[in-house]
Write a structure and sequence with these properties.
This protein is mostly helical. The chain has one domain. About 55% of the residues lie in helices and about 10% in strands. It has 6 helices and 3 strands. Strand 1, helix 6 and strand 2 form a beta-alpha-beta unit. The protein is globular, with a radius of gyration of 17 Å.
Length: about 160
C-alpha cells in the first residue's frame, strides 16, 4: 500500500517538474527526527507560554483555519476538539517551518500562500533579526484543474535583494 506522501509526490510531479532549480523532497519525519527539533520545539512551547503576542498569533492562525471549515459550529464540542488539534499541529509545525528550515541556509520558502500569523511570528522571533535573507517567502499558486503552462508566484518586494 503506497504512503500518502508518495501519492502526493506523484500527483504533483507535473507542477514541480517545471522548476529549474535543484529540488529535494523531505518527509515530515525527517524534520521531527532532526537532532535540533526537540530544542526548537521547547523554545516554541516556552515562547507560546510566555509571550502574549506569539500566543495570540498562533491562536489566530488556528482560529482562521477553523473558520474556513464549514462543518464546524463555533463553541461546539467538535470545534473545541478541532481547536486543540490545530494548536497541537501549530506547535509541532512552527519549529520545523522556520528555525529548522533556516539551518539549510535556504533563501526562499515556496508555499501555496503567504505565511500564517503563526509562521510569521516564529520567523520574526527566530530568523528576521539574525538573517533576513533566509526563508523569504514566495506564494506559489497551483491550478489543480489544468496542466500548468506557467506557474504564477508572488513575493514581498522588500524581501528581494540585488545580487
Amino acid at each position: 500500500m503506497p504512503l500518502l506522501g508518495d501519492e502526493w509526490i506523484e500527483r504533483n510531479k507535473n507542477a514541480y517538474d517545471y522548476l529549474t532549480i535543484p529540488l529535494k523532497v523531505y518527509r515530515w519525519d525527517y524534520w521531527l527526527n532532526n537532532k535540533n527539533y526537540g530544542f526548537y520545539r521547547e523554545e516554541v512551547n516556552r515562547l507560546y507560554e510566555s509571550n502574549e503576542m506569539f500566543k495570540a498569533a498562533l491562536n489566530m492562525s488556528a482560529e482562521k483555519f477553523l473558520l474556513r471549515q464549514d462543518t464546524l459550529v463555533k463553541g461546539s464540542d467538535k470545534y473545541q476538539k478541532a481547536q486543540q488539534l490545530s494548536m497541537r499541529y501549530l506547535l509541532e509545525e512552527c519549529p520545523v517551518l522556520v528555525p529548522l528550515w533556516a539551518q539549510t541556509k535556504c533563501e526562499f520558502i515556496i508555499y501555496p500562500r503567504f505565511r500564517t500569523m503563526a509562521m510569521s511570528a516564529t520567523y520574526e522571533h527566530f530568523i528576521k533579526c539574525e538573517n533576513s535573507f533566509l526563508l523569504r517567502e514566495i506564494a506559489l499558486k497551483f491550478n489543480h484543474r489544468v496542466k500548468p503552462k506557467k506557474l504564477s508566484f508572488s513575493y514581498i518586494k522588500s524581501q528581494v535583494r540585488n545580487v
